[in-house]
Each structure stands twice: as structure tokens, then as C-alpha cells.
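Re: the 361-residue chain
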Amino acid sequence: MNATPAQKGMLDYFKWAFIMTAVGLVLGGWLGWQSSGTIGGMATVFFICAVLAVLEISLSFDNAIVNANKLKDMTPAWQHRFLTWGIVIAVFGMRVVFPLAIVVIAADLGPVEAFLLAAREPAEYARIMNDAHLPIAAFGGTFLMMVGLTYFFDHEKNVHWIDVIEKHMARSATIKGIEIGLVLLMILLFSYLLEGAEAVTFVYSAIYGLVTFLAVEVIGGLLDASQRTMVEAAKGGLGAFIYLEVLDASFSFDGVIGAFALSQNLFVIAIGLGIGAMYVRSMTIMLVEKGTLAEYRYLEHGAFYAILILSVIMYCQTMLHIPEVITGLGGAGLIGISLWSSIRYNRMEQLRGREAVVENI
């Protein structure tokens, strides 16, 4: 008999994540032994898998919050589909297929040749991946920037964490397309800072990211609008599902590329990031079932601020290297502060409630 959300403890939500951690670390240790034949080599790969998992969790914690925000409005059937099919796409698609696809396109190789290159010549494979970083960062950064700005430029938004910023943004939301205009200005600014072919590549990739966001929004709106007119809501939430998958891909860009700084082995990277993705899935389920977003009113705000900062960092990474540790700690720090602010607000509300009770006695 399955426990209800109220009966579940925190550890219950992370059961499968713990199982995947054990399996992944054992598999990573085995890969290390196979490649080096030494205890030291096995321990090194084991450690890299663990660090990659932590890196993925720190970079994707805001992703879990945004996913939960979207999931709470989806039908139970589509929630289940995202948390099952979606995790397969996230782990296998973004951590294995996506890096292979980059090499296929960048090096003009077939899928099998790219796979063999990853297995036999990891250094060359990593070089091709790093060379493709600029267009990936421009595309992903633009998509995430639109996600963050769309949240704050909402005239119906009435809960504000940093009033001086968010109230003005909410009021300005009546200006149609203001977030698109700001993103286009950022694209122009960074294109001026780059030179020659890099500037052209940046602009084209960023525009593709913008168009992708708008296309996902339009398609999602059409699908979810049409499903409301159907007697049988079998397709309920398909638009939101597509949106979340593209969003997850954008979050994954930075982690997948940054992982090559720790290892050049595609399979080690897939194991480490896959473990991290399982924790993100578990956090998403917990946030939805426990109603954590409603309980901590500023948690979403912290996540979307982290998204905006990540998008700017991705833009900056087209010109200079920013350690992934800084990116992860920055996002985690913002979310931590927003959580502390939420707890502080709840305590003040409880105190006001007690004072009101005392006054009425």
C-alpha cells in the first residue's frame, strides 16, 4: 500500500535516487578499473562520478523548483508521464544523445562514428564538445533568460520578494513584448563584445534560442487550449510537457559542457550527471506533493533569479571561463536566501496572528 504525501518522510522521496547513486558509483568504479586496472584509477573515476552528481544537483536545484511550479497545474496523468518518460529523456537524451549529436554535427560524423570516437579518443571528443560551447551557451542562455523574465514581467503577479525590482517589472508587463526587447538588447550587447565569426555565431544561436522559446510557448498554448475543449482530456498537459523538456535541456547545457572539465569520458559524465538528475526528479516530486512552493512564498522567486543569473553567466562564458562551482554555489545561495526569507515571513505572520488573538481576548 502506497503512503500518502502526508505520511511520506523526506527520505522516502529520495529512495530511487539513493538506489541509482549506489548503482552509478559501482558502475563508475568498474569503468575506472577497466580503463586503468588499478585501485587508484578506480577511486578516481568513483570520485569524479560523485563530484559530477553534486555539480548537477547544485546547478539544477532551481530547475526542480521551476518544474514543480509547472507540474502542479498539470493533470495527474501528465505529471506521471513527465516524471517517468521525462527522466528517461533527461538522463539518456541530454546526458548521452545530446553530447553525441553535437559531435555528429560539429565533426560531420555519423552517430556510430561519434560513439566510437567518445569510447576510443575521449580527448578529441572533448575538444569538439568544447569548440561547440559558444553556440550552445548562446542558445541555452537566451532560452533561460526568457524563462526568467517571463516570470517577473507578469502584471498578475502580486507576491514580490525584492519589491523595488519586482513591482516595477510587474507594472511594466503591460508593455507588450518588453521581455523580448530586453533579451534582444542583451544579444546585441554581447555580440559587440565578440569579434568576427564568433559574433555572427552568437547572434544566430541566440535568435534560435529566442524563437524556440516563443515556439514552445505558442505550441504549448495551442495544445493545452485544444485539450480543454475535448471531452476526454487524454492529451492534457502535453504543451506543458514539451515546455518542461525544452527547459530541462536548457538547464542541462551548462552542466554537460562543464562536466568535460572534470572528465573526458562520455560514459563517466553520463553516470555522474544521471545520478544528479535522479535527485532533481526526487526534489521535484517532493515539492509538488508536499506543497512546498505554497508554504515558502519566496522560494520560486529565488529560483527564477538564479535562472536569470545562470543565463547571463552562459552569455559571459562565450568570452571567458567561469568555473561551474561558482555557477552552482551562486544559484544555491540565492535559493537558500529566498528560503530563509520565506521562513522569516512565516514566523512574522504567526507572531502577528498570536498578537491578534491576544488583543481579541
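Confidence is low (pLDDT under 50) at residues 229-236.
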